Each structure stands twice: as structure tokens, then as C-alpha cells.
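User: Some background: our group keeps a shared notebook of sequences we're curious about, and every so often someone picks one and asks for a predicted structure to add to the entry. Today it's my turn. The entry only has the sequence so far, pasted here. Could you supply the structure so I can complete it?
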Amino acid sequence: MQDLLPGPFVLQCKHTKKADATLAPSELEDEFTKVRALVERGICATYVLLTNARVSGQSEEEIQRRLRACGVVHPLVLDGQWLSDMIASHRGLRMFVPRVYGLGDLSQILDERAYAQALVLMKSAPEQVSTFVVTNAYRKAARALRDHGFVLLLGDPAVGKSVIALMLAISAADNWGCVAIKPRTSDELVQRWNPHEKDQFFWLDDAFGAVRHEAILTHAWARDLPHVMSAVKNGARVVLTSRNYIYNEARPLLKPYAYPLLHEQHVTVDVADLGRTERQQILYNHLTAGDQPADVLSRMKPHLEAAADAEPFRPEAARRLGLQAFTTGLSPTREDITSFMAQPRQLLIDVYDQLDVDAHAALALVYATGQDKGLPSPLALDPVQRDIIERTGAAPGATSRAMAALTGTFLTEATALDGQTYWSFHHPTLREGFAAWLTTQAHLLPIVLTGMTDRALLSRTDCLPAASEQHQGTLLRIPPPLYQATAQRISALRRHRRSPDVVWREEHEREQSVLSYLSRDSSDSFLRAYLSEDPELYAVLLDFDAPAKDDLRPQLLARLHRAGLLPEDIRREAIAHMTDLAVTAPDASWIEDTDWQKQAWHVLLTDEERENLFDHVRRELVPRLKRRVDDWALEFNGDKDNDPVDDALFWYSQAFEQRLDDDTAGEFDQARDTYQQVREDPDDAHRNWTPEPPPYRRETPQSTQPGPEQRSLFDDIDH
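Assistant: Of course. Here's the predicted structure to add to the notebook entry:
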């Protein structure tokens, strides 16, 4: 095949599911008839037969003889061995056809280091490797990783973001010998990045929050992005995943205009953008990998194309359709199957209802764990976990057996890169469905809350009114009778000071999580209960830093003010502190504009107080601008694209211009120019980064029915 054969070309693929199958010339009788007709029409000079079956030397000679007899000038037979040779010798090919990693002996095609990495990753989710479908979204992600070292995978829950990240990790181990690292936060990524180790692969699932936006994680990303981009520039490869609705909330905080890799279409991938053929292949793979009997698949078969067309289409729903555990009582009708695919939540709650108390105890243990990786296996129960089991009505031995029985359906048991095995929900939507079910179980809810770790309590519950809409991503809603006990626990968590050797960042992040919970996930009644337990909170909230728009404390002050729980003297102290920061920092967070980050000051300031602030800035800051600008520039030692002084000067200029005070606006414009000149670093690599493009938009897949001569992919699903 060194020389290019002449066309026109015809390629015929013959695929078999049977291992070690052999293709005989007699199986090609229909093809020989078609070939003769193609030759007579002048569209077949070279005929390529491609098959994953074995072809003996004698059979190959016979096939080529028959093809020449039909008029083919250049017959070519490429069998399974040829395919294996190509896979073994082309790393780039394996990256774009990653399912081959699950088809044979990895040691034959990967070097020792890559083999060890890929094997650990594959053991963490073997069924995901075996059912994976190479979609356009995966190809785009693979190209982004290859060409730019960075990719952001976006999509709704259960659309396959983590599966694509897993396959990219395996491919990176093969193509670049990358060591796969799965940090939880940007800070962990920066700590684990080794500038002397070029080939590191970082995979962060749910980078900005698992089921809802966690501002503390996003602020950390805004701080750490320069370091992350430096790592990418020096050879690291980074894959982030996020749900769409979470990223939409995080994006304004990331200063994305400063980091084009977060913007450009070729590194941001909408995972849910699936074609009709891709949907069908995903559904087919999950059904063949599942445990549905052949007779059930036969009854489903007429409705499977409609199931693949369901909106929205979720690969996780396709997985559940292939498993008997999720389809008990499901009628194999078009209406029920398409409802199962498109609206799984209520069906999932019904399934949880049907499980026994041992299964409920097992799932409650996994739900209550606060570890990101899951519940350590084997079980080593602490007193709280034993209490969960006993008060659920189960026993430890039966719960352990239930864990094993649920593995593969509701739970997954995976080995992390550190060698420890963990149980976790097979998919986040199963965890969310369990939370929705728990809210209907009054006898179980207090038990699970007792067993929850602090992190789980703050990230997986809310104390909002029963009738209020939940944030996207189902949370466990705590009812009013449990408010006081919950307030006692959270207030103790905020006020607790650990030993001096505990890292300051851990203390800070814990307090930030509490403040976020109070400002976003708490009803007026819960806030009242909390303040009765933590009267010191007011003093803490007054100690906010500049820029105040990035601090959770003013947001919570505003939330308390809306609830009628903020004393007037505390509100006035907050405004006095903001007035001081407005001049000394400088901090323009209080300025009225459309930026949602500054909504706290719309609530806290009266119109008169806002006017007084403008007068204060004009009187106290403008006459001293020249000297202050020099001081600020000399003190600068951070990231120029995340410079709060530069931001404040810009917003002051805009605000005074909108108020028709052109002289003051001009003072701030000139001050900003001077500040940038003094601060300017001529080696800045980010100066020419481009502005953000239009929002990403998902195209609705075409839903054309197959023509009368097209074979349905599901024809052999029950064989």
C-alpha cells in the first residue's frame, strides 16, 4: 500500500460480533453480484474489503480471484490482523478510536508506563469503556487536547461528560505517556503540577460545583487560572467538566476575557450535541451490555428508534433502560419507553420505593459520606454509620450484601489512583434522585442528616421554603422542624477553631461554605434560627475585604436585610466600611450597574447614601489620585488581568461619565492610563487575548426516519 491505488474506489466493511470468526468466500456471494454491477457503471476500479474477522491466505486468494472476475482491477482484502497492526502502530488512531483500549491486551500496544496508567483508569469504570461511542463531541475534545492542551466539557446532567474525560485520560496515557491526576480543585491542580514533569494530565470533574454553583470554587479558579495556563503552556493537559447551568453562573466570575482558552469554540465542547446515529449507537451499546432478556429486547425493539429520538437524550437513561433493576414494571410500549428516556426522575423515585430496607441503608450510607471519592470499601463502620443502618431497620451484614447487589446498577465500586476502592453512586443523577426520594421519607431524613459529614451537609442540602423552586441539581430539602438542630450544627462548624497546625485555607474555605449556605440556601425562618445560635455572625460580616463584590459577607448582609434580620446599626457600619474601602482600596463594588455581582449594594444602600458615596469619592479620592496611583502601581505584584485597582478605576470612570460628570470621569481615565504605564510588564503574554465570542448554542439534531431500504441499527438487538 505504499503507492496510491487508482480510483474510483468502493469500500465494503464486514463486521462480526464473534471472537475469532473466519470470513469465507461463500459469505460474499451477494457482494460479488453487486460488484459486477458497480464495475459496469464505471465506479469501481479498486475494491477494498475491510473486516474484523480472520481471513485465511487461501480465502484471500479466492476472494481476489472472484473480484477480478467481476472486473475489479485492484482488489484488496484487509482483515482483523491488519486492523490490529494498524491500531498497535498508530497512537493518533487510538486516540480517535478509543474503544480499542477495551478490546484486547493493552500490553501489546502501550509502553509500560502508559499501560499502568490506562489499566488503572479502565478498572475504575470498565462498563464505560466497553459501551463508549466516539461522537463528534469526543473528536472535538480530542483535537482540542491534542492542539491546545486544554478542553472544557459542558453539558446537562447525564450526557456523558465524565465518560469523555475518562477516554481522553486513557488516550493521553497512550499518546503522551501522561500521568493522570484527578484533583478536586484548582488549588490542588496547582499544587500537583510539576514544571519539571512535562506530561501531566489533569482531569477535574464538576470544576465549579457538583449539583450547583459553588462560588468558592469559582473564585479559586479566577485566582489560579494564570498558573493553570502556565502549566498548559509548559506541556500539561487539562480537562474540566461542568454542567451548563453551573458554568453559566461561574463564567462572569472567571474574567474570561483575560483567558481565551475558556472562550474559543475549539476548546469548549457541548457534550450533549449528539447526532441521531450517535444516539442510536449509544442506546444500542448500553442495551447489549445490559442484562435485559432477549424477549424483553424483542418487545422493546420496535420503539428503540423513538427512544433514541427522545428529548432530552441522556446516555445514563440509556444505561438504565438496559438494566432490569431500573425497568421493573416498565411496559414495553413506545409511550412508556420514551417517557423513561426523557423524564426519568419520577420513575427513579418509584424504583427507590421498591427497594428493601437493606438497599435503603446501603444507599443512605453512600449518600451521607462527605468524601468526594465515595464511601471506602470494604466497610469499616463508625458509630454514626452503624446508627444509620440500625435506625433504617437493617443490619451491617445485610447492608454489606446490599452494597454488592447494588454495584453495577445504582452504585459503582471503583479504585482510585491511590489504590483505595470506594463506593459511590453510579451517576450523579442517581444521587440526586435518592435525595428527591429521601424528602418523602420522614423517618429516614433525620437519620441521614445525622450521618452526613459537614461537607455533605453544606453541599447537598438546603433550608429553603417547601414551595420554593429548587436550584438545578436536586438537593435534600430540610423541613422546618429540623431547622434548629441544623442551625446548631452549622453555627458550631463556623465558630469552631481547630489546632494552629491546620492550614488557614481550610478554615477559610469552611467559613466561606457556611456563608454561601446562609446567603443562598436558607429561608428567612432558618436564618432566624441560625442567628439565635450564632449572634457573633454580625461582627464577622462587617469585616469584608476589597473588592467587596468578590466577598460573600456583603451578600449575606443583603440577604439578612431583605429578611428583616439586619439591625440598622449593623447596616450603617457596613456602609461606613464600604465608604472607607471606596477610597483607600480603591473599591467600586458599590456602584450601581448591571453587574449581578454587585446586587448586594442595591439592597444595602439607599439612594441618598449612594449619592453621598459619589460625593465622598469626588471629594476625598480625586484630588489625591496622582499620588495614590503611583503607590498602587508600586504595590502591585499580582495578575494584570485580574487587577482590582484597574477594575475600580475603570468603573469609576464609567459611573461618573454616565452621571454626566465628564471632568471627574476624565480624571479617572487619565489615572488608569498612568497606573497601567507604571505597572506595565512588556513581557505580558496575555495582552493581546481576544474578547469573548457569542454564547454557545446547541443545534437540535435532525430527526429523519430511515428510508425503506435502510437497515435499523436495532435489528439484531435481541440476537
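Suggested note for the entry: The chain is about 50% helix and 10% strand. Residues 105-111, 682-709 have pLDDT under 50 and may be disordered.
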